[in-house]
Amino acid sequence: MDIKEFFEMSAGKWFSQRTSHHLAFKQSESGKSDIRIEMLPANDPEVIKLCEQYEINPSLAWGGARVTWDGTMEWDQEKHTGSSVLVPIPDPDKPGEGKLLRDVGYAEKAGVAGRYVMGSDGALTLITEYETMYSEERLWFASPNLRLRTSILKRFGGFSMASFCSEIRLGVTTPPAAANAAEVKS
């Protein structure tokens, strides 16, 4: 599986349950979110704008995705909503690796360019380094409609948070990429 196939398999509506462990405080909390992932074509103005922001030729992008979330965390019960555009830029010299451009970061609200690695097992690892933080997420499909995600966040040289999420696809029994692959084989 390559990065484009992973994104295509991720398209749709998801229900996410998260458990986060705050290591410094020796506390854990749970949360839940509704997530929507929609594919963006290469000529989408947001894809082009993000490429230009990082001085990357937009022709190197096959497209991207818009991720929108609406959720709550146990400790504050406030709504956490937002949206981010993600644009992977494959490395021509390293198959399965590349840059991941984001208009909103995972750990900070500013845009950031991280990197990704597609494992031979089909898992996607996202690595983002900020000025004072480091985040690493690993995402994989247990089945077409069940996606799992782990993440770690390091601040000031030590781990500060670890999370585990299970994400269940809502309303669609076959992801678009899997449906297209089945049609091609017929």
From TrEMBL:
Q: Which UniProt keywords apply?
A: Lyase
Name the enzyme's class. lyase
> What's one GO MF term for it?
lyase activity
Q: Which domain of life is it from?
A: Bacteria
Enzyme Commission designation = 4.-.-.-
Return the CDD domains for the record.
CpcS (cd16339)
InterPro entries in the cross-refs: Calycin, CpcS/CpeS
RNA-binding as a keyword of this entry, yes or no, is: no
A Pfam family that the UniProt record links to this protein: CpeS
What HAMAP family does UniProt report for this protein, alphabetically? Chrphore_lyase_CpxS
Q: What's its job?
A: Covalently attaches a chromophore to Cys residue(s) of phycobiliproteins.
Family in the record: Belongs to the CpcS/CpeS biliprotein lyase family.
Task: State the name under which the record lists this protein.
Answer: Chromophore lyase CpcS/CpeS
| Organism name | Floridaenema evergladense BLCC-F167
